[in-house]
Write a structure and sequence with these properties.
Blueprint lengths: L1 H16 L5 H36 L1
């Protein structure tokens, strides 16, 4: 049981050392991820459409 308590104390100590991002940093990161996801999805959708069209023309 002593090891568990020591582990929890060490985890708590390490979490105090963490530099947490500000709310603005999190919002800007979320915006970048969402916009990147939408852009990549659009590009992949266009590529898929063009490849499907090419296969239909060939066959």
């Amino acid at each position: 049981m002593g090891k568990v308590i020591q582990f929890i104390k060490e985890c708590h100590g390490e979490l105090k050392k963490v530099i947490w991002p500000s709310r603005e940093d999190v919002y800007s990161s979320v915006k970048v991820v969402i916009l990147s996801t939408i852009l990549i999805a659009a590009v992949l959708g266009i590529v898929d459409f063009l490849l499907s069209l090419g296969v239909q023309i060939i066959f």
